[in-house]
UniProtKB/TrEMBL annotation:
Organism: Streptomyces triticagri
Residues in the signal sequence: 1-29
Domain of life (superkingdom): Bacteria
Feature: compositional bias, Basic and acidic residues: 150-161
Region annotation Disordered: where it falls in the sequence: 33-62, 142-161
Name the UniProt record assigns to this protein: L,D-transpeptidase
C-alpha cells in the first residue's frame, strides 16, 4: 500500500469514527417531545445507593426534588414527596400493559369516577402521560381490586388500592410533577 493510500484509509477511519461518535451523541440526546429536556437519567440497579439496595421503599436518588409523584417502573412503587423532599406516602401499584417512558411529566387531567379502558369502574384517576396512543395514569378500582390487566389489551391504568388512590387524588393536582424512573 502506498503512503498516500494509507493516509487516505486513516482519514476515512477518522471520519467514520467521528460519524459514529456523533450519532451516538445524537441518540443519547434524542428525547421525545413529551418528556421535556430534563428527564432523569436511567440508572442500572448497580448504581443504586446503599440505602436503595437495602430498603426497597427508599426514594430513588435520581427522582428530582421538590413536591412530586415518583413512579419506579422496576419496583412498581410510587412515592408522594412533599416540598421539602420528605416522603409523605409510598405504596406498591399494579402496572398497566403500556408503561410510561422514564422522564419528567406533570398531571394533565383528573377524573373522579369513570370506566377504565379495561371496562372496570375506577375512581380518583390522575393522568400524566401518553405512550403508544394510550393515556397513562393512576387509578383505583371502585371494587378495590388490583388485578393484573389483560396482556392482550393496551391499557394505561396504573392501579392503586382505594386508600392509596384517595391519597394520590388529594396530593396530585393538575400540574404536579410526576417523575418516572426505571
Amino acid at each position: 500500500m502506498s503512503r498516500s493510500s494509507s493516509g487516505f484509509v486513516a482519514g476515512l477511519t477518522a471520519v467514520a469514527l467521528a460519524a459514529v461518535g456523533f450519532l451516538a451523541y445524537q441518540a443519547s440526546a434524542n428525547v421525545p417531545d413529551q418528556l421535556g429536556k430534563d428527564r432523569p437519567e436511567a440508572s442500572a440497579s448497580s448504581s443504586k445507593t446503599p440505602a436503595e439496595k437495602s430498603d426497597p421503599k427508599a426514594l430513588p436518588a435520581e427522582s428530582g426534588s421538590g413536591a412530586r409523584v415518583v413512579y419506579a417502573l422496576d419496583s412498581d412503587r410510587v412515592w408522594l414527596v412533599g416540598s421539602r423532599n420528605k416522603v409523605q406516602r409510598t405504596f406498591e401499584v399494579t402496572p398497566s400493559t403500556v408503561d410510561p417512558l422514564p422522564g419528567k411529566y406533570a398531571v394533565t387531567s383528573r377524573s373522579g369516577t369513570i370506566t377504565g379502558s379495561d371496562g372496570v369502574p375506577i375512581e380518583h384517576v390522575v393522568r400524566f402521560a401518553n405512550n403508544e396512543g394510550v393515556a397513562i395514569g393512576f387509578s383505583a378500582a371502585v371494587d378495590g381490586s388490583t388485578a393484573s390487566p389483560d396482556p392482550e389489551k393496551k391499557t394505561g391504568g396504573i392501579r392503586e388500592s382505594r386508600a392509596d388512590g384517595s391519597a394520590m387524588w388529594k396530593f396530585a393536582e393538575i400540574g404536579r410533577p410526576v417523575i418516572v424512573v426505571p
